[in-house]
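dumping this here before i forget
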Amino acid sequence: MDAQIVNISLPAKLLQLVDKVAEKEARSRSELFREAIRSYVLRKAKWDELFFYAQRQAKRLKIKEKDVENIVAKYHAKNSF
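structure:
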């Protein structure tokens, strides 16, 4: 793996939590940080893609932001048990 060293500052209590999780999962801090960052970046990319899709659909269907709340309320009313 082509790796680079990155220095970050964390509050002591957060680092203690990281160390507890790393120990519980038998991982190093580096592995835990890599997984956390990877998870965040992938989740962010998915949300960005979803919002971009929603914006395109709203434009195509001529839905304004103010209309969304009413659409959601009608959907919930129609589909609630």
